[in-house]
């Protein structure tokens, strides 16, 4: 890519930003028309609510903004790559995305998108695609080399389903082939693929592994997303909640960059909102079994006791293990007895437990909805926690970029 093309790219970023939403809507419609099979690969819920669309557009624009020094984006690209790897995205599909994206720029922007501008964007896209293809190639190779691991989809039988709260069920997934399964880092997720009858499509979704590694099975814990009119109910979570023991699903091998560092000795501060407690539970159990057995503070917030999954297990661990302290925030406290278990009425407010969490060298892990993550992150920064010690994961396309 030459200097003139880089200048053209920089000059046209504002135009693409302006037409970002129209452009990405147009691009997806164009691509799905030509390649309807890709609808089985993309999250149609995110397509409908607009979240994934902005993720791809933002990533391409972020790349364009850093065209002089794209290496600053490498950690972001690794995050995207790990998601792509878990969805079995293949190098040849970049050509499909590239063709439809560039054609869409031409068709949406119109005459202002001259041939030389389109050529410059084509060069930029394929430069980004090459970086991503190479990153993902390494990821596929490393993944394949791990004992018990696999690339793509593998069939698992749901052998046990447990109701953990009024809206969360755990699914115990055993490999149908009875062979070994690969170990994972606490905090990682798997992608699951199920057939959704109302779409007549296969649909993938990500779910964090919610227990410490067990060589027999993977456990995920899924919240049934009930739609509040006019929004429809969640497709895959409801499909999963209607499954029975013995049913078979396809999953990809564990992935993700939000996880505990295996041998670190730093204290842990886990901060979760709602179903965002699933990776934290895996971290808690893994830490409990490890020789480090690090000091752990877990702050959790949810609407009320009835939606608080795993609270009894966590209380049991707390009773037996001196290294765990918990703070639980309920929007509504219904039971007076709960006060003895450090239940605090209201939304999570880290100021209320700051003396407990401001531990030297602590690592802070946050998981929950976007606004929840932003609020906790901001409080931690205000409390002088270094951003390099804060890690977060959003249960959707990773749209927030705080550190
Ligand atoms: C890394 C990662 C880990 C995760 N871990 C977990 C976990 O451990 N447990 C868990 O329960 N979830 C987890 N999730 C979230 C999970 O992947 C799904 O996003 C979630 O289950 C919802 O999927 P769904 O198919 O039920 O909903 P979808 O059908 O995808 O809908 C999602 C939302 O979009 C709204 N929507 C759909 N269509 C429209 C429309 N036309 N207009 C407006 N709004 C619309 C729905 O009302 C719903 O609120 C995780 C996500 C990620 C990325
Ligand atoms: C340079 C090209 C690409 C860029 C910049 C890009 C960017 C992104 C981003 C930012 C995300 C969200 C990541 C996250 O959730 O954290 C994503 C997810 C995804 N990408 Fe890509 N991507 C590219 C190419 C592709 C290709 C070639 C395919 C396959 C056809 C693909 C399929 C997907 C799918 C299926 C998801 C998950 C969607 C969802 O869950 O809603 N991407 N990509």
TrEMBL record:
Residues 151-261 form the FAD-binding FR-type domain. Its cofactor is heme b; FAD. It comes from Flavobacterium reichenbachii. Its EC number is 1.14.12.17. Residues 1-137 form the Globin domain. PROSITE patterns: FAD_FR, GLOBIN. GO terms for biological process: cellular response to nitrosative stress; nitric oxide catabolic process. It comes from the Bacteria. GO terms for molecular function: FAD binding; heme binding; metal ion binding; nitric oxide dioxygenase NAD(P)H activity; oxygen binding; oxygen carrier activity. Belongs to the globin family. Two-domain flavohemoproteins subfamily. In the C-terminal section; belongs to the flavoprotein pyridine nucleotide cytochrome reductase family. This is Flavohemoprotein. It catalyses: 2 nitric oxide + NADPH + 2 O2 = 2 nitrate + NADP(+) + H(+); 2 nitric oxide + NADH + 2 O2 = 2 nitrate + NAD(+) + H(+). Keywords: FAD, Flavoprotein, Heme, Iron, Metal-binding, NAD, NADP, Oxidoreductase, Oxygen transport, Transport. InterPro entries: FAD-bd_FR_type, Flavoprot_Pyr_Nucl_cyt_Rdtase, FNR_nucleotide-bd, Globin, Globin-like_sf, Globin/Proto, OxRdtase_FAD/NAD-bd, Riboflavin_synthase-like_b-brl. Gene3D superfamilies: Globins, Nucleotide-binding domain of ferredoxin-NADP reductase (FNR) module, Translation factors.
């Amino acid at each position: 890519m030459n200097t003139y093309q880089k200048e053209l790219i920089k000059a046209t970023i504002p135009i693409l930003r302006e037409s970002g939403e129209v452009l990405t809507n147009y691009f997806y419609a164009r691509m799905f028309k030509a390649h309807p099979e890709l609808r089985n690969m993309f999250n149609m819920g995110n397509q409908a609510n607009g979240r994934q669309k902005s993720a791809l557009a933002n990533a391409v624009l972020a790349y364009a903004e850093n065209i002089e020094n794209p290496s600053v984006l490498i950690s972001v690209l690794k995050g995207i790559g790990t998601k792509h790897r878990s969805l079995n995205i293949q190098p040849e599909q970049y050509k499909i995305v590239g063709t439809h994206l560039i054609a869409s720029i031409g068709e949406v922007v119109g005459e202002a998108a001259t041939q030389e501008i389109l050529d410059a964007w084509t060069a930029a896209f394929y430069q980004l695609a090459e970086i991503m293809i190479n990153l993902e190639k390494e990821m596929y190779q490393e993944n394949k080399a791990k004992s018990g691991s696999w690339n793509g989809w593998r069939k698992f039988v749901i052998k046990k389903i447990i109701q953990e709260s009024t809206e969360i069920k755990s699914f115990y997934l055993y490999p149908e082939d009875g062979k070994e399964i690969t170990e994972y880092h606490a905090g990682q997720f798997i992608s699951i693929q199920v057939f959704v009858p109302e779409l007549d499509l296969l649909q993938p979704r990500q779910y964090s592994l919610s227990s410490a590694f067990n060589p027999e099975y993977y456990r995920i814990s899924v919240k049934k997303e009930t739609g509040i009119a006019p929004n429809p109910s969640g497709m895959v979570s409801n499909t999963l909640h209607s499954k029975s023991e013995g049913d078979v699903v396809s999953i990809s091998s564990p992935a993700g960059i939000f996880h505990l560092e295996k041998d670190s000795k730093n204290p842990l501060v886990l901060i979760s909102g709602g179903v965002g407690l699933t990776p934290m539970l895996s971290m808690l159990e893994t830490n409990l079994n490890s020789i480090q057995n690090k000091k752990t503070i877990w702050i959790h917030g949810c609407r009320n006791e009835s939606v608080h999954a795993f609270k009894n297990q966590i209380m049991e661990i707390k009773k037996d293990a001196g290294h765990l302290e918990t703070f639980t925030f309920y929007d509504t406290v219904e039971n007076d007895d709960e006060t003895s278990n450090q239940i605090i009425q209201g939304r999570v407010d880290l100021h209320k437990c700051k003396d407990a969490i401001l531990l030297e060298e602590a690592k802070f892990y946050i998981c929950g909805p976007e606004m929840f993550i932003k609020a906790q992150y901001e409080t931690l920064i205000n409390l002088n926690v270094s951003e390099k010690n804060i890690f977060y994961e959003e249960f959707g396309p990773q749209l927030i970029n705080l550190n």
